[in-house]
Amino acid sequence: MGSVTRIILQRLALGLLTLFIVSIVIFIAVNLLPGDFAEAILGQGATPEAVASIREGLGLDKPPITRYFDWLGGAIQGDLGSSFAQANFASFTGSDAASGTTVAEQIAPRFKNTLFLAGVTAAIAVPVSIFLGVLAALYRNSIFDRATNILTLSSISSPDFFLAYVLILFLSVLNPLLPSLSNIYDGMDFSERLVKSLLPALTLTLAVTAQMMRMTRAAIINLLASPYIEMARLKGISPMRVIVTHALPNALAPIITVIALNLAYLITGVVVVEVVFVYPGIGQLFVDSVKIRDIPVVQACCLIFAAAYILLNLSADVLSILSNPRLRHPK
Amino acid sequence: MSTWLSILIAFPVMAGVAWVFRFAGQSATSNKPFFRDMPFGVAFGYVVAAVAILLAFKIYFIDQVLFFRWAMQGLIIFTVSAFLFRLLGRLVGTAGSRKLFRSMPLTAAFGVMIVLAYAILAIFAPVFAPYGEEQVFAAANTLPGGDPATGGDPAHLLGTDQIGRDLMSRLIYGARNTVGIAFATTCLAFFIGGSLGFLAATIGGWLDQVLSRAVDVLMAIPALIFALLLMTIASAWSVKLGIPLTIFMILIIAIIDSTRVYRLARAVGVNIVVMDYIEAAKLRGEGLTYLIFREILPNATAPLLAEFGLRFCFVFLTIASLSFLGVGIQPPLADWGTMVRDLAQFINFAQFSPLTAALPILAAGAIALLTVAVNFIVDWMLQKSSGLKE
């Protein structure tokens, strides 16, 4: 197992390096803004004195490299600065900019909501797609197989908001089964929270099921030609059991990889769905901040999205190494 | 809650019916192999399918849910026209195209038909559209349907928007703007990614290393998030420089997507560069341009073409999403993503005015239809080139 730990540590180090470089890219991108933060906060009617005072307050008079490491050091300790909207508000009321709500306090509850939505979606999508994939492999080339193929291909290639509005139309407006607004707040009990986030979760399920289901089907069908499956069949085992107990365990590696990649999509691709259902997640906050150019929040959200994305891609990588002996012992 | 309860009860009932169905089949046909060897799961599947079809008939004919009827009618019309289109392709045209249509599944024929229809609509938009896309009329907020009794206007079949622009014209011009901009962006992404990828494959060495590592970093940031971050910055610049935001958007999305094209072009190119005919061309003293465009490119067309279809879908969906979020294609250009966002609230009136509620679905469906069509074609191309039979 020594070599496995080494490979995993290598991947982990590579992931951290990538994240570090990504943070530099985000920082540089943000610094490409015309003018600087102080002008952006105060807008058009800024007096030079006010600009200078905010510039000093935010540490904008320091050189870029110092600022970058200040930001990175703060981000590692969970301090992501305070948002422009807050700073602007503070500058009007005359209170101290630092005393307002920080970006971290703004993001934390929303990130929890996004994770909750991703969790609900995964709990629906993963079993459904593996079940459908196994069935499609079992009855390959039948009407059932073709119908699921066409349906999943259509649902994955439609834009998220199309699926969302069709679901709203049928499940919320024409038949009032589920609420179309996911107004979630703290202190809501679990079942109510679940019902409110069911419609966005269903939309996301439709968007991610196709790839997982097709991968399950393809991975199983790839194995069906191998001699040990032939042997199992000749023993007289039923087709369902051949697939579930003989083919599926060996097909697990590619399936797990695809599941991890789709979870990465769930964390980062929720932006549109959250906006449609007004779900108070991190994606909604991100889009709102993009619209008002609230740079500290945009920066922080970007970093969190990138970190989640890199982490899940990394775990897909590690899991596929762990589940494949050929990768575990490279030549 | 009664709906949920009835769904819960329906499953054991269907399971019972399935068992009876199989047993009856076995007795009636004196144990024919079809029924004798039928697993319970398959019997259950037949029953579920039968119930689904019955339910569809009930909703269509008895409940008469308008949206369901429209969806079903649309499905039937599309299937029949795709079938006729394939038949036409098999009878008319050159020997090559006739052969192509003979091996084509119905889904791919549907895809080709839709793509052709969109192309014609986009190119001849001014001919089809009753009015200009920016033309403002006095009658704002007219409802669709064209019937004055229900708040419509015969001059505007789909009604007008909140400042009085004809929605039908904007929907048709949307084909030109949304699809046109997505197509231009994809071409740009292919030009950047393709040429850099082939360059990295031919020259190799440090250039390959630098480009590949840079692409690795850019690909580590999720595409839509990165696009939104860059659009924030671009929106500030576009105000300052007076350049339309749409141009920035084309550049940003082209660069983000060119990283994916680069990966593929490099991978394909590396395999071609080691071929003997490249060696021969190099010995002849051919330059880099000749090598890339006359030797490598023709041999990399097939995978790049399939990638072009997929990339176009991604770009198209990204642009539609950005417009939907309000930072993409900017007014006064007509665009489907923006239309969906502006009209979305009308969906709540589905009980009272189905036509009005259908408007946002129509605009979103126009996006979905094209991406589904392109995906069907790409799926068919990939299956054909990989020789997969299952």
Automatic annotation (TrEMBL), chain A:
Belongs to the binding-protein-dependent transport system permease family. PROSITE patterns: ABC_TM1 (PS50928). It is a multi-pass membrane protein. This is ABC transporter permease. The lineage of its organism: Bacteria, Pseudomonadati, Pseudomonadota, Alphaproteobacteria, Rhodobacterales. CDD domains: TM_PBP2 (cd06261). It is found in: Cell membrane. It comes from Pseudohalocynthiibacter aestuariivivens. Keywords: Cell membrane, Membrane, Transmembrane, Transmembrane helix, Transport.
